[in-house]
Amino acid sequence: MRTLRLGADRIRYEVAVYFRQGDTIFFTFLFPVVMLGIFSVAFQGLGTVGGAPDGTGGISQAAYYLPGMIAAGILLSGVQNLAVDIAVEKGDGTLKRLGGTPLPVVSYFVGKMGQVIVTSVLQILLLLLVARLAFDVSLPTDPALWLRFLWVYLLGIVTSAVLGIALSAVPRTGKSATAVIIPIVLVLQFISGVYLAFNLLPEWLRNIASLFPLKWIAQGMRSVFLPAGFESQEPSGSWDLGWMALVLGLWLVAGLVACRLTFRWIRKDG
Questions:
Q1: What is the pLDDT of residue 166?
Q2: Confidence (pLDDT) at 52
Q3: Cα(19)–Cα(137) distance, integer angstroms
Q4: Cα–Cα distance measured from residue 48 to residue 63, given in angstroms and rounded to the nearest whole number
Q5: Rounded distance, CA 268 to CA 270, Å?
Q6: Percentage of the residues of the chain whose pLDDT score is greater than 90
Q7: CB-side neighbour CA atoms (13 Å) of 154
Q8: Using a CB cutoff of 8 Å and minimum separation of 24, what contacts does 178-183 make?
Q9: Of 148, 200, 216, 255, whose CB has the highest number of CB atoms within 10 Å?
Q10: What pairs with residue 59 in β-bridges?
Q11: Angle between helices 61-75 and 105-129 (to 10 degrees)
């Protein structure tokens, strides 16, 4: 109980610190919202997506890009945010100081995980509000789709957070964390169906993207927010939710193993 109580205190602390950092708010919290607005406005002249040859039917550009931006937000909140944050805390001595306190490691990670979930939920709510109010995007009304959204989100955010913790061991210093982590995250967004239609990418690039979690998170979100007819546009002609759960589950296990092997309050070479 003490560990959980300290973890709850850490969640409040981590969330407060998160919203005090202007660069973090923009590049992690608001970035998907900004990109949704840019893509929706920039491509609205192209008409609807998935419409008939005569221009009827289909969905708006905002509706088409919404699932990808939600998936990108999950990746940014989990992988980018935690990887950079923990690497900086290693570099500036924060973890070393925490290691000298009675704070359990579990409480520290409860705080980090709680912060990621709280901020990502707020981010998704903001994305949905902007999509609905600013771009008149119709949201799902079927409870089964929202239930699917819930388990895809939970599996995606937990996997992303664990991978972010594991990836924090890669930068050699806190100052280099941003330069190391952001390019990785950016490349994954471009090849995973966030900014570009996944079925338009070369097959070899789709195969590479399929090895990583973001492609499957984005596909899972498309299965929730896009009409059923868009399922045929996937490379396999299916949403492949079973494969999505399997791939994310494997990454989750791999991330947990990597965290166990690499995480230290201080670096071994420090």
A1: 93
A2: 62
A3: 28
A4: 9
A5: 6
A6: 70
A7: 5
A8: 178/84, 180/87, 181/79, 181/80, 181/83, 181/84, 181/87, 182/27, 182/80, 182/84
A9: 216
A10: 49
A11: 170
Question: What's the mean per-residue pLDDT of the chain?
Answer: 91
Q: What is the pLDDT of residues 209-268, one digit of tens each?
A: 999 999 999 999 999 999 998 999 898 899 999 999 999 999 999 999 998 888 776 544
d(CA 103, CA 7) in angstroms, rounded, equals: 9
Please tell me the distance from the alpha carbon of residue 215 to that of residue 230, in angstroms, as a whole number: 16
Tokens of 69: 């931006």
Amino acid at 175: K
CA separation for the pair 206, 201 (Å, rounded): 6
As given in the structure block, the two tokens for residue 101 are 């306190």
- Residue 129 identity (one-letter amino acid): L
Q: Which residue has the tokens 């940014």?
A: 76
Residue 83 and residue 168 in contact, taking contact as beta carbons nearer than 8 Å: yes
- Summarize pLDDT for 160-195 with one digit per residue, the tens: 999 999 999 999 888 889 899 999 999 999 999 999
> Is the Cβ–Cβ distance between 98 and 265 less than 8 Å?
yes
What is the residue-wise DSSP string for 10-38? HHHHHHHHHTT-HHHIIIIIIHHHHHHHH
Closest to 77 in 3D by CA, of 171, 185, 234: 185
* Residue 14 · residue 194 · CB < 8 Å: no
CA-wise closest residue to 29 among 100, 94, 162, 121: 121
Residue type, 12: R
